[in-house]
Write a structure and sequence with these properties.
Layout (H helix, E strand, L loop, with lengths): L4 H21 L5 H21 L9 H25 L3 H21 L7 H22 L25 H20 L2
Helix pairs in contact: 1-2, 1-6, 2-4, 2-6, 3-4, 5-6
């Protein structure tokens, strides 16, 4: 994290904007959206805070311990949800994301900015695959209805916070942000 100024600020803006959108998704009519939006907002804002360029604001050493504790708790919550659901790739992704944040905070707290190469490599492979998979899911299928065509049968159109493609775009941007942050370790 704490890379060059302009790219660092772009990453901060991307992650903070994603966090704001995820907070807005917590007002959704769809229970699944509400359930996942809080964790995703935490990730977005946490990534934004960790990406602030050091030249602008070097956080105190104890801040990295706070990041480690907060994202450690988020990882435990995701592990519990994964175990309770006995399935669910989304819970696994939250576990991987929170664990990556714990790892990056712990590495940064040591002041070395160089993590365990094998662990960093595994996380890079996971998030690269996630970004490619999520990006591919955003591509419209052949013969799909245009975005402006209303729902079939006169059903009520989903609100802008309930649109699955917007949630996927946010997840894609956070995955790309995670890749950018892992590359600095």
């Amino acid at each position: 994290m704490h890379g060059p100024g302009s790219s660092g600020w772009l990453l901060v803006a991307l992650c903070a904007g994603t966090g704001v959108y995820c907070l807005l998704r917590m007002r959704s009519r769809i229970e699944e959206q509400r359930r996942t939006a809080g964790g995703e907002a935490l990730m977005g804002f946490g990534m934004a805070a960790m990406a602030v360029p050091a030249a602008a604001m070097a956080p105190p050493r104890w801040a990295w311990a706070v990041y480690t504790a907060v994202f450690g708790a988020a990882a435990l919550r995701a592990l519990w949800a994964l175990w309770a659901a006995r399935s669910g790739l989304h819970h696994l992704h939250h576990l991987m994301g929170a664990s990556a944040m714990v790892y990056m905070a712990a590495v940064t707290a040591n002041g070395t900015h160089s993590g365990v190469p094998v662990l960093t490599g595994v996380l890079l492979v996971y998030f690269t695959a996630y970004v490619l998979r999520t990006g591919a899911r955003l591509v419209p299928a052949a013969g799909a209805a245009p975005a402006g065509g209303g729902p079939p049968g006169g059903a009520r159109a989903p609100g802008w916070g309930d649109r699955l493609e917007l949630a996927r775009a946010c997840r894609l941007s956070m995955g790309m942000g995670m890749l950018a942050m892992l590359l600095t370790i």
